[in-house]
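Lab meeting prep.
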Amino acid sequence: MNGMEMNIHYFRMINDLGKQYPALNPVFFFIAEYTVYLLALIALLYWFTRKHENRIMVICATITFVLAEILGKIAGTFHYNAQPFAELADVNQLVFKAVDNSFPSDHTILFFSFCISFLLFQKKKGILWLLLAIFVGISRIWVGVHYPADVLVGALISIGSALAVYMLVPNLRIVQVCLELYEKAERAVLPAKTKTKGY
């Protein structure tokens, strides 16, 4: 099999599971469409713990996403494929969207950017972050909007970006200075609660 035939073969393997096990379709639809809100909430919660290391982690994850998205758009200029539901017959399509270039997967880039960044900072929870990213990637195939190659390339771009950012960004003086200025302004507006002694 050539590359495109393999891509279609593995797409069918995953996407056809929705026909074999239709009871799982709502689960994968939810993962594909709504876990992005959960990820945003998690990032906000980490930020507002007001812990310096958590904020550096969120900053790194955000920079990773921006970098990976730029690289993804560049990759998309060298290869084009529409969503599987637009190119193939009898797709288990659970998400309806406009037809455009689905290579690489933006959802996968987003989740792998944040989840791999979180994994690098929180190695004890690493398997959970990795599983979340993988499940989101698989869900995008399950609902019929991406090929496996779209997901795989998005994941690889994000992993490479996360590693580069993790090694470079936390020690940059400009990042530390900007965060210190933000935290100083935050303390002026929202003073941290002080513990009071009980009587």
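Slide two material, second protein:
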Amino acid sequence: MLNPIRVISLDRTPQRFTDFQKFNSQLPIQRVSACEGGELKKEEYVEAGIFSCDLEYSVGAMGIAVSHIRLWQEAVSESSVRHIAEDDAIIRNDFYQIFAEADATLKEWDILLWGYNDDWPVGLSSYFNAVVSLEGKTRSQNFLRENYSVFQQEKKKPALLPLVSVAGIGLYSISPQGARKLLDKCLPLTQHNAKYAKDTSVPWFNTGIDVEMSRHYEDMNAYLSFPPIALMVNDMENSTIRGKNIFKEE
């Protein structure tokens, strides 16, 4: 029995998960209720060691962070890999075949990034601790919605490259030891800046858990799929953070 992809989705936006099911009907998935950032009592998470007292994430970003952290904790407690997706991901049908090959080939991997933001540079590890960057090509929401089945039937085998920096966590696999490392490195969330891949001397403002995770990839056994095997619709109009479904500040 395949380990299902855990899909983080808010209870109050059921259409997003319905769309995810439609786009990814060939894959085993399990819906995970996202944490409502607007309902969090920050002081309780400060006391629990999840947030620092000076964390200034938006309530939406805090909810997303807690949602991912809970799944890392589950990976550790159950000593099991977690495949984690956000609910706007379109995933290739051969995901499990690609994952199985990567799992058999890579030694003691911590995290595998399968889907990420293509409107932000990716940083990869090169010789003498140098970071090289690459940029993708952003596709429109309509293009992805109209051509998703073509993408999902793609058979081009991706390369897994040593990762230093990336934005977005649309789909990733995390091992129990990788989850433990992220919990140890990220918590409590303190909002330290990350490095910008195109110029590592430039600070990248830490506005969410994906930026916080990116701060630590260089010190982990972290790999990125290129080309990606998951694409993000990134519907800003209906985003639960930036669009019509924005969390309300209290």
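Talking points for slide two:
The chain has a mean pLDDT of 91.
Helices lie at 14-23, 42-47, 59-78, 95-105, 141-152, 176-186, 209-214.
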